[in-house]
Fold:
Amino acid sequence: MPSVGPTFFSSPTTTGDGLTRLQTLFAGASSADTSDYSIGSGTLSNMTLSDGYCEGLFDSNLTTKSLVYTDVGISQVSDAAPLTYEIFWKATLDTPSPQSPGDVIKFAQFTTHLNGIDFYIRGVPNDTDILIVQSGHVTVTVTAGHAYGTQNHLALVNRSTGVMDIYLNGVRVVTGRDDATTLAGLGTMQLGGIGRGDTRIRYYGARVRREEVYPDDASFTPPAGPESWPAP
Structure:
């Protein structure tokens, strides 16, 4: 059974169960949150919206391309509050050559009760590797973590035991990370970031739940896509 956190945050009374704090599939070229929490459309910077996706082109200009939701209603009172952040995304090369050696592209950041956790595509010649970076912890390198042109699923699950797991395409790549640090605020979901390279990153869906959506196992079968998520 999934572990569910308390529901003491106020939210509009509509049809959901009150546990989804953000959900968007970019339907109708909109980034609006469709959950009961209704936090709006986020802040879009140098990204484009189309029906069914949000896309950023990370080119030779070292500028931020992002969509940021700054309040996803995550409890700060305990690091044992169950929650799940997840996104579906795909990277494609905009030209035959990827980013320059040493360059990295930040494609997501999740801020919970912990310090922000950053996710990067590594530079050539290891540009199918994923880097997971968090202050105070050793950087995790996921070798061949993605393939160009293939949709990926990324999920962070905070357990009721107070530890955090991260899964890439259903495989646990960070296990039982424990960080007692708590931060003020209500959590941030960021798609995109800063980086340089001839790479397009397309996001198909983003969701935050105050629930352990995925079991405490080494692997699971992720949903086929965000369209498989229940209505919030």
In short: The two ends are 19 Å apart (CA to CA). The domain at 20-213 is CATH 2.60.120.200 (Jelly Rolls).
